[in-house]
Amino acid sequence: MHTQQPYCENPLLRRSYNLIAPFYDLVIERPLLKARARSLHSLPAEMPGRVLVSGVGTGLDLPLLPAMHRYIALDFSAAMLSRARPRGAHLHIDWVLGDSMALPFADAQFDHVVLHLILAVVPHTEKCLSEAARVLKPGGTILVFDKFLRPQQHAWLRRALNPLTRRLATRMDVVFEDVLREVPQLQVVSDRPLLAGGWFRGIVLRKV
After folding, report:
1. Which domains does the chain have, with CATH numbers?
2. Model confidence pLDDT, tens digit, residues 99-143
3. Alpha-carbon Rg of the chain, whole angstroms?
4. 10 - beta bridge partners?
5. Residue 166, Cα to own-chain centre: how many angstroms?
6. What is the DSSP code (8-state) at residue 100?
7. CA–CA separation, 39 and 143 (whole Å)
């Protein structure tokens, strides 16, 4: 069981998400709905499993999830979790206030992990992905939906804005391929552009 809280390295980020929780859905919900749904279609539905939604936010994924699975929804913001609860009323779901970079679960506990719009938010993307892999059972899958730069992509404006945005809301400079190299037990099953000309991608990973 991990007790560290790496998000404490950036306390401003947590305060920011607590403050923006009431307004988050107005900005994010409608533009990303179809992309979220396409990503979640990759969640296997053949048999019930245990699914971790790490960085659940205000729960915008929850209405799109099949009721057959048992879920744990985790977020570092109490305000976000409070707004998410009504959206999970149709699911068998437990709620955890915790850190996606230091998950409070033993190894190999979950059949699937959902990482939607969290890898580019946390200060240490590789820790978040590594923790998801740690708590995932061998053969299990991770569903990633987020914005990533491509290798060697310049994206000068995004990189210039990153020092500010990473402290308040999200990182703009994450290259997924660089992160994946730090978690060699994960293999890419699929990688699809979902939004904004491929800036937002839907990636399915499997633990070997």
Report:
1. 6-207 (3.40.50.150)
2. 999 999 999 999 999 999 999 988 899 999 999 999 999 999 999
3. 16
4. none
5. 15
6. T
7. 7
End-to-end CA distance of the chain: 22
Whether the CB-CB separation of 98 and 45 falls below 8 Å is answered with: no
72-87 b/e with 16+ CB inside 10 Å = b? bbbbbbebbbebbeeb
Give this prediction's pTM: 0.84
Question: H/E element holding 68?
Answer: none
> Rounded to an integer, what distance in angstroms lies between the CA atom of residue 177 and that of residue 62?
28
Q: Which helix (H) or strand (E) holds 63?
A: none
Determine the average pLDDT of the residues in 137-165: 76
Residue whose token pair is 């998410």: 84
Give the pLDDT band of residue 3 (cuts 50, 70, 90). very low
CB 99 within 8 A of CB 6: yes
**CA-CA distances (angstroms) from residue 158 to 20, 51, 197?**
21, 33, 15
Token duo for residue 93: 């779901």
Question: Hunting for tokens 């914005």 — which residue is that?
Answer: 147
Confidence of residue 1 (pLDDT cuts 50, 70, 90): very low
